Amino acid sequence: MRVYLGLAAKGRDIPPQVLASAREAIESAFPVPAEVIRSGEWHGAGVSLFGWSNEPDDSRLPGLLHPDGGRIVGVNGHLADPADVSRLPDDSVGGAFSAWIARDGELTASTAINRVCPVFYAETPDLHVIGSRALLVHLVAQQVDRIDYDVLALQTMVRQGFFLSDETPYKGVSALRPATTIAIRGGSRTISETPLPEAGPAPDAPRLKRAAIGELAEALLATVEPLRNASEPVNLALTGGRDTRILAALLHAAKVPFRVTTNGLDTHPDVILARRIAAALKVEHTVIAPPQTAAKDAVLVEHPLERAWETLRTCEGMTSAYESIVGYLPYSGKPTMSGQSGETLRAGSLNLLQTDLSDKALLRRITTTFVKDEKLFTAEANEHARELARPWQARRNRLEALDHIYIWYKVGRWQASARAGSLRRGDPVRPFLDNRVARAALSLDQGWRLSEEVIYTLILRFAPQLRDVPIEGKPWRFTDGLKKRWPWSHVPPPSMPTQKTGGGWSWRTSPGPDLTAVLREQVLGGLDALAPIVDPDEVRALFADPVVKKPGTAWHLYTVSTMLTGLYPGKQPEGLERITVSRPDPGR
């Protein structure tokens, strides 16, 4: 994981105390042990660029602060081709990254199309501050030694558990939009944005369909091209679903050495189908069986305060402690891959949630995404949420609006924040997050992508030997009513139903009375801090029952409450007892 901070003075020089503040603040803002942090600095006329990393050496290219023809370039994330560092900033460069460029008197930072590697910025009377960690930007920009929270902005955290805006928890700190460059020259700031691609109409002939998918196929192949020379085979986590299947087909087509791993019992559809895929592609397949333990009617879980502290530390108050964040492990350069963000190829998760595609239903989805649970919130918080929703409600193409909301916020804010946990462990290739892949996908008609014909065609294009391997879960959407018309025509085989295991309960979603009591005590005890955004009576009603009925909302409130009452930055909680959570029905 890399962290960047750029400073640009509005006057002649950056004050030495600001530079010292940046060096001191990194230990609070970088969620790894202080002893593994490596650093670099560049200082020019009125501009400074800092870089920090927990990578053990300088082998990953480009380097942390890369000299490039009279400028210094930093790359947060990865480039599909490290040689493209000289082209930055450029919308056509492949990879999942943000770019940081400094030279005398000039500082720029830019996001890729899904801003999954974020850029945050703030301004003081004397200084422009730009960084890849929002808390770091805030700590350096603050004139006094305290954190000022933007409480109204946190209404979206309570509703959804992440940000549906360009706001952050920190007053004065904003997230840069997708495909956007912020530049400071001569002390003045400009922000330039490239709109997301407008999708063309769905092709109506096989030849036109193949041509339209061609650009997306080439972009996907380019993402894995560098892996041909990896020191060991790529490890792909493979299931019976759609998104990892296309990655297996992609690696096969690109002739990249890989092996696959599946978690589950031999009787589970994931294992059955992954075994068939591995056999068809002639790759090594490892099955990791879940530990077989005696049936229990209760589990002991970590205290929520410990969980909240680690989530706040890792995700900077932009992801709820309801989410399970990948824990810290030492950085590893081993090549790994998963199907994260495969919904980009299928018109985004918000569209995939829809069964009713009428204009009225899609508009309702847009509205409820932003203005969920109105009754719980204050009038000011609800009006703020409606303001955020209005530009998206005004879009006439509802499928496109939901597609772009997914890119802007589900990927660009939720995943960008949550994936910080896993990035501490390494920088894996994520083809679906690639700048060129996302751009090519968004250029294809949303309805066509939503039908899943695009992703199915890609699978057969990369690995035609998978044509008779069923999919797990619901059938391919485009096959509804599809029948074999000629002996040589192809219809996908019926899907394999998802296996019901009889388990499925989670202590997060079924918290039980003891855990509910802990969440209740924190939230109700800190109602004064939450008062600008929530109705105290409605919050009390939420926790009125022995077991809270909306655990997700309870966790979101708990996360925001602990942040506003000073849990982090601060010392990690110690000596907290674990909490007993009982199954709602031990016999089920």
TrEMBL record:
<feature type="domain" description="Asparagine synthetase">
    <location>
        <begin position="216"/>
        <end position="446"/>
    </location>
</feature>
<dbReference type="Pfam" id="PF00733">
    <property type="entry name" value="Asn_synthase"/>
</dbReference>
<dbReference type="InterPro" id="IPR029055">
    <property type="entry name" value="Ntn_hydrolases_N"/>
</dbReference>
<protein>
    <submittedName>
        <fullName>Asparagine synthetase B (Glutamine-hydrolyzing)</fullName>
    </submittedName>
</protein>
<dbReference type="InterPro" id="IPR014729">
    <property type="entry name" value="Rossmann-like_a/b/a_fold"/>
</dbReference>
<dbReference type="InterPro" id="IPR001962">
    <property type="entry name" value="Asn_synthase"/>
</dbReference>
